[in-house]
């Protein structure tokens, strides 16, 4: 009959309990038969109240308390006079004692893995006196282990790596399982390992848990990862033992066991001849099944006719071979190139060299495509020289360009005017001859850098550029002049022959041998008795005094003309005037003041009198300003400023008015005051220059005349001035509002046009139209009455 795991455990517990009870009985018999001992000095006597340890089985699952053992004293006669007391770890909570019999029971399930033993103390007391009849004795209750814990992999699951192509027996990783059972008691904690999943590639050592490779030549490129299941079983792997499992993920790491291989034996690429230098022509890549550093490539051109034209490098990211241009391509010179390219691993593994060469080659053919290229100049830069004295239209030099294409199209030349904004130069469109178009001045611009454009006649979009540097050669066309504006002074106490100023000159020209200036006084100043000039022969000259006794009161300023000649061919000269002021100087010759002083005040006036006169003059000026200001701030004239008001209301002339109810789009004052007329009539669109402060006089005239003349004046002004807009009152009769049965009553063109319309019917429309009937019903001659 087969027993399950649980039944087998219960069976073991019963056997263990039986053995424990047998041992306890023997211990109690031996203690009860021994005699008490007494200790006096160094002598020792045996007695029956000494306890060592009890044993109790863990994981007891019964409903009744588990019997542990019995305490007994020889003093106990069985008459109930002795009382047993238990104290220490777990007393009363886990372990209880029958105070009459001394029997000890466990009331709770015990787990050795939580606590392996308990230390308690026992004492026998006289029940009547409650005094100890035996000394307190300490003993241990040890929890006896059963196999109730399976092995556990505390560090699982595991990951490990092993190089591909490793030999059999290569160690991969060690796994370790722990069993919480007592390793000193039985085989409950003795573990053995086995592999449940992962054969036949890997194996495991039963005792150590070391996982090793079991097959040779495992290839990462075929399969790079394996999942292993390892079992650990206690009871030395016997039936009935408990087990635990863990997973181990083993990854095969890469080794350089695969050579690079090009997918194709040959490649072909087309590139235009205009492709710039350093441009990428093509990218090729050799395939390598390895990864990482084992797949790093090196490319090189081993043969072909484009060794100096192309080069190949490696892209570190993609491991591609990048073919680039080293020199410009020319379809007319060569139409195709062939390259032999080799790819090799950067670091080969010597262990796998026997598998074959770790390199591969391929052929790359590059076809150069013809492109319509712009004209090319014979030189990248044309240096030219021209004298600044050259005449307009003289030839400076010639540039030449040609069409590099096989068609050899004619070329036309022009100057990029962005580089010759002042248009100093011209170029012949056919020959490329550069001539001057304006007079040149080296001092304004010594070098002209211009760009010449050459374009194909058949395809003007193809433009080549050439660069010309024109240097302007100097001629002596600038006279020398003072190097600076000199402020020369002479002291009143100066002595004859004293140097008062050292002068020099500058010249805008730049002669090849440098400047040489000659200084002298002009003919008119040679015989003056005040100053002389000395040429120092080093492009400087000194001004000296000829006398003493200079006085500011007599003459405060002297003007000395100096003649300067340069060494050019032909030489140029100029006359420069040196201004010399007479100053009062201190003992060291330092000028103190150079202004002429008035030593005698006119008319004997004192300083106080002069100040009073100036104060009066200022007061009069202030009064005059106040009077002028007050006059300008006079009141506004009472005359109604019709022009301003009317012009502000012109904003409504995009329609014909709002009818009789509209009083905002125009000035109604002129129409409401129809009983008066001003004597002085001015144009409403012109502001009168003179405004009268007096109130204008008005006179009464009949209503019809006033209204007729008012309308007539406005119509006449509109006819005479075609640029003037139709002002207020003209708009009054332009539109009578929406829905009017009379429709439009506009009379704007009644005078200027030859209208035959009869307005006599206006008198039948009632009092509101009486005025219009008087104006238009009697005929146009009424307007002149």
Automatic annotation (TrEMBL):
Keywords: Calcium, Cell adhesion, Cell membrane, Cleavage on pair of basic residues, Glycoprotein, Membrane, Metal-binding, Repeat, Signal, Transmembrane, Transmembrane helix. One of its GO terms (molecular function) is beta-catenin binding. It is found in: Cell membrane. GO terms for biological process: adherens junction organization; calcium-dependent cell-cell adhesion via plasma membrane cell adhesion molecules; cell migration; cell morphogenesis; cell-cell adhesion mediated by cadherin; cell-cell junction assembly; homophilic cell adhesion via plasma membrane adhesion molecules. The keyword Membrane applies. Gene3D superfamilies: Cadherins (2.60.40.60), TCF3-CBD (Catenin binding domain) (4.10.900.10). It is a single-pass type I membrane protein. Pfam families: CADH_Y-type_LIR (PF01049), Cadherin (PF00028). InterPro entries: Cadherin (IPR039808), Cadherin-like_dom (IPR002126), Cadherin-like_sf (IPR015919), Cadherin_CS (IPR020894), Cadherin_Y-type_LIR (IPR000233), Catenin-bd_sf (IPR027397). Residues 1-27 form the signal peptide. The chain crosses the membrane at residues 599-628. The keyword Membrane applies. PANTHER family: CADHERIN-23 (PTHR24027), CADHERIN-7 (PTHR24027:SF91). Cadherins are calcium-dependent cell adhesion proteins. This is Cadherin 7.
